[in-house]
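Predict structure. Chain length: 193.
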Amino acid sequence: PYILGNTYQNLRKLQSAHGGYDVGAESNYGDYEKDINLDIALLVGKQLKSYGYKVVYTRTSDSVSWSNDNVEDLQTRCDLAKKKNADLFVSIHLNSSEYDASGYEIYCDFNNKNTVKLSNSILKQLDQLYYSTNRGLLDTNETPLYVVANNEVDAILIEAGFISDDSDLYYLKNYTNNVATAIAKGIKKSLNE
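Prediction complete.
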């Protein structure tokens, strides 16, 4: 079993979003989304491995070996999940807004019972941290996201908080392990039900 870039028992795949040429969102203080995402993903993977799951990452550093074309980049990540026979693809991101916004949310396909169950399990664990607002589940049928819509593996996309919100950013940077542990516990609980 593996977890690819994202995590799951029989190949969970953990995707640390962005990377290399793509910094993602940037905080008011110069923090890049790609760096915080990677920190979270590596810790989630470490925790999942301690539970006995096999984990495959889409990246483990800021170096990416694929095209800097956004669509090709995203497709490469989806292809890796298929190639590694992943059971689950979990993509980790941070949100950003020019308006006053905070909180965590998860995108999944509402027609896929497995990803809805997984997403709710992770949200319950994040709720126990009391670091921000639960913005709930969002349906990728209404808001298509490439790594969910074009993935042959059950896939979700986690927005762990807003990099543009000082409070979310502080927690994500200083209590990264708490967030990662909550995500990993949510995955484990979902798989064990």
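Summary: The chain has one domain: 3-192.
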